[in-house]
Write a structure and sequence with these properties.
Elements (H helix, E strand, L loop, with lengths): L3 E9 L6 E11 L10 E10 L4 E9 L4 E4 L4 E4 L4 E6 L5 E7 L4
Antiparallel strand pairs: 1-4, 2-3, 2-7, 5-6, 7-8
């Protein structure tokens, strides 16, 4: 509950030219008690690849990512619901996803 999740994805250029891109990590809150965005950007990493090259991109998702600002309490409230992690080139180009829960 106070740690983080390491998210790793392999990115490959399939063409004959080098390329640059941005790997983006979004979360969706499953079972939140409040209305949340459909996908919240929680991390991104720029990657440059040579033709046919594969690199592993790693990002950390801290446990605090499940929190939201509560105006009435004037602070962050951390929910213990599972979150879905979505990774891709953009929010409408998700290439992989998974669900993580909170362990105490």
């Amino acid at each position: 509950s106070d740690g983080s999740v390491k998210v790793s994805v392999a990115v490959t250029t399939t063409g004959s030219r080098a390329g640059d891109g941005v790997v983006q990590m979004y979360v969706q809150h499953i079972g939140s008690k409040v209305e949340r965005q459909i996908g919240e950007l929680k991390g991104f990493e720029r990657v440059s690849l040579a033709p046919k090259e594969t690199k592993v991109v790693e990002m950390q998702l801290p446990a605090s990512a499940r929190g939201y600002w509560n105006e009435a309490q004037h602070g962050v409230v951390e929910e213990e619901e599972p979150v879905k992690i979505l990774v891709g080139g953009s929010s409408d180009n998700v290439r992989t996803e998974g669900v993580v829960g909170v362990m105490r």
